[in-house]
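Exam revision sheet. Question 4 asks you to relate a sequence to its structure. Input first:
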Amino acid sequence: MSTSIPAALAGAAGALLLLVGCTSPAAEAESAPITRAELPAISPSEEQQAAIADGEVDETEYTDGFERYESCMREAGWSLVGVDRTGYLIEYSVPDEAVVRGDDDRCSQREFAEIDTLWQLAHEDESYTTRLYQHCLREAGVDPAEDAAAVFAQLGEHDLDPKDCLVYADLVRP
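Answer key, structure tokens:
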């Protein structure tokens, strides 16, 4: 039986892939990303539960929740990056490694996640996305509504794809 050189090379390459697979010499179990499903359940702190008990979050509850989250991250050895408290929404970034190790998720779930969700839902009319869509509507000659749901409906009524509004992203401050 004879095999052509290209066929032999292809076979050798395939055998090498079977032997090597998708491994990396430096890969270790502790460097693999952690997913939420792999982590134990995290119960909200008593403070977070109290803040959301009435289904609403005021500014003090929001800022207190963020401060507890930030403190938890510090205790885990991380500093949040670019914390900006000037708007209605506290903006910040989390070091990648804190996410990979699960510290961000643990601290957020315990101290801030549910508070943040209620706060953002209560302020969706002020959100960057709503303001971006309003700007997009104005550019199309449409007087935009004030509330987020109506603004989104207007996009559809005027055949504007929300993705097309991204060209105005730099003109609307987050």
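Marking note for examiners. The chain has a mean pLDDT of 83.
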